[in-house]
Amino acid sequence: MDFSIKALDAKSTIASIKSGCIAVAVFENKNLSSAAQALNLKGDISAALKSGDITGKAGSTLLLRGVNGVAAERVLLVGLGKEDAVSEKDFSSAAQAVARTFSSLGASDAIVALPIDAVAGRDPAWAIRCTILNVRDAAYRFDSLKSKKEPAPVGVKKIAFAVASTSANLAKEAITQAVAVANGIDLTKDLGNLPANVCTPTYLANTAKSMGKEFKLQVEVLDRKQLQALKMGSFLSVTNGSVEPPKFIVIKHLGGKAKDAPTVLVGKGITFDSGGISLKPGAAMDEMKYDMGGAASVLGTMRAIAELKLKLNVIVVVPTCENMPSGSATKPGDIVTSMSGQTIEVLNTDAEGRLVLCDALTYVERFKPAAVVDVATLTGACITALGHHNSGLFTRSDDAHDALANELLAAGKAAGDTAWRMPIEDSYQEQLKSNFADMANIGGPAGGAVTAACFLERYTKKYTWAHLDIAGTAWKSGAAKGSTGRPVPLLTSFLIQRAQAAN
Ligand code: BES
Ligand code: MN
Ligand code: ZN
User: Fold this and answer.
1) pLDDT tens for residues 42-67?
2) What is the enclosing helix (H) or strand (E) of 176?
3) Range list for CATH 3.40.220.10 in the chain
């Protein structure tokens, strides 16, 4: 898929552009956007609207061929809803409709001439990103493991955004950014969709290494021996039942000033979560191959910012292993000592995410981070609380943490990849009390997403930290089963914002 800019001026008008298709907007009140008006030379567009074949509701479409006076072979009318109040959702629906139509069109190139300044409070760059991410989402395929590939997809391969020549440079930058994010999302989706017998901890480590080569990043992979030397007793306890060797991946993108403290992303990388001795029920257990969604999303985010050569110091850390039952697996009641020295009574081996993350959160202290964000498919309870719409965002609630939380919430909103803030409070911490160790690894059935976050909080006292529980947002179940690529859009927006603030 190739994206570019078509700058419009007096000589190159929209009606004179030769192309397979031009997408223009119409509104519910039957008014035409300015680009649609410019194609309405002989009244064909207004006639089509009059016919009632398109309502103008956001996301409605009508494909016209041979429009009089228009050089393009086709005109795609796209509904954008209420003319005086185009919402983000309306524009996204229109972008989705364009993406869907383009993906099965008999043309290979097309022009998008939607009004990219129509959404109040969002700039044209937002609209361009929104369109590109929808097009790339519609084009995504995962068939590398099917012996008979589906036939090569038809549809539009080259898309140009028609923009006034004065805003061509801004638009170009928006394209570069959106394509990098889409590439990051695709990597995240691929890693998530790969089964656990392919996407092992070693596979994730190799992915990191090849990304390091491609983008000149520093990559370090620690093995079991090195983790033992670091005294990561909590992380290692999760690996006891598995024959797959654990890996601890560290990737550095040092695009900022040498003296600037890095922003650190930590991703949960359980490549398969059977529950361990506290075995999960069989139904939908295959979906626990997605339990490395946090790892996949921080790797995808790293890919995006590396491609953009973002002027920011960013370090990605991925503790990765399998959680399996066996004769050597950790047993309920076992007590382990974390790298921080705090001891943990493992009351449920299925609460393994926090056990791998806590040691990673202690490890990253050495980077003296500006902020640490961990990303994890951590609790089913988060799905109960927030469904599949928002990721759960947890931080302490002092000024520094409120500021970090607000940065992440705003980044999620801007990227259409939202999070919702949840509490961390002492009253929940009490649920983690153990009779035999410093803490238990579960806090009982009530408030499970919060007590999981409270557990992590105990390992993050030395820096500003946020936790994203993506159990409900990282993948879809049912007929549309597959990785969503979330929260790569949120995380890249967050880092791009930080880079802008620092430069
Ligand atoms: N990976 C799961 C969380 C999960 C469950 C994500 C379902 C997506 C869908 C995590 O390791 C887990 O098993 N958590 C337990 C914690 C419990 C034992 C306290 C859970 O949520 O049931
Ligand atoms: Mn589990
Ligand atoms: Zn898990």
Assistant:
1) 999 999 999 999 999 999 999 999 99
2) helix 168-193
3) 2-163
CATH number of 182-502: 3.40.630.10
Torsion angles phi and psi, residue 340, rounded to 5: -75, -10
Give me the sign of the Cα torsion angle 124, 126, 127, 132.
positive
Number of Cβ atoms within 10 Å of the Cβ of 316: 30
Question: What is the per-residue pLDDT across 10-35, written as a single tens digit (0 to 9) for each?
Answer: 888 999 999 999 999 999 999 999 99
Q: What is the pTM of this model?
A: 0.97
> What CATH superfamily classification does 2-163 receive?
Leucine Aminopeptidase, subunit E, domain 1 (3.40.220.10)
pLDDT at 313: 98
Residues with CB under 6 A from ligand 1: 273, 291, 348, 350-353, 377-381, 442, 448, 471
- Yes or no: say if 470 and 283 are a contact pair by the CB < 8 Å rule: no
Beta carbons of 370 and 262 less than 8 angstroms apart: yes
The DSSP element (H or E) to which 456 belongs, if any, is: helix 448-457
Tell me how far the alpha carbon of residue 354 lies from the centroid of ligand 3, in angstroms. Answer: 9
- Categorise residue 184: left if φ over 0, alpha if ψ from -120 to 50, beta otherwise: alpha
Q: Which ligand is nearest to the CA of 276?
A: 2
